[in-house]
Amino acid sequence: MKELGNVNVSLHNLPFLLLAILNPWVTSGILFLLAFFSCYMSALSWADLTYVLPATSLGYVLVALVAHFGFHEVISLTRWLGIALIAGGVGLVAAGPSLTTIRHRDTSTGSTSDTVLGNPGSREVES
Prior knowledge:
By secondary structure, the protein is mainly alpha-helical. Helices cover 56% and strands 10% of the residues. A three-stranded antiparallel beta sheet has the order 1-2-3, with no helix packed on it.
């Protein structure tokens, strides 16, 4: 974005705005964001947030590690503590009960049963 200089984001400067959006770095960032949201929505369509959230919260830790070791960014102790606090909170949420059910249909009898995921003794409920 430094290539374009100070860009005033408004409809009056539409050519500069389009030029900024068509920058390969910005375009690839938008595409990665769209891919993330489609994967996130797909994961939420089949599992509870208590399953999906721990996987996405690893992103905070991974971004910090890549920034520190890959790009030699200086990350303060308070930021590391914040990342640890987020990861700990997500761990508490993930330890809670799950309500995700999978519906099984027996084609021979036509009956259905629900299996609750996430519990050590997954139970089946006939319906």
